[in-house]
Amino acid sequence: xxxxVESGGGLVxxxxxxxLSCAYSGDPxxxxxxxxxxxxxxxxxxxxxxxxxSGDRTDYTASxxxxxTISRDNATSTVYLQMDRLTPEDTAVxxxxxxxxNYDFCLPWEFDYWGQGIQVTVSS
Length: 124
Known about the structure:
mainly beta; 4-stranded antiparallel β-sheet; 11 strands; 51% strand
């Protein structure tokens, strides 16, 4: 099992950057695929980016490709989401999640363990 805590959210102006961090504890992280998801008001939770257990596979939803970068550090049991060139459409609660071994589509229903979420607001 995993215990997950997100950090790094907040308010940022359009065009700015934020780096979200997610600390995991519990099982060794190298057997888990990890992901970032977000949910905006009135919308369904969506996959933002996922990374495979060995780090050799990464996926991004189309709207963030070229702007967001996911990375993981198994030694410190941390996953990061570097978010650049943020827009108001990126405003949402962002969640970390984990699933043992692999994922197929980077969709919320594939992931078993979830953090509480952290607010990201992009506004001038």
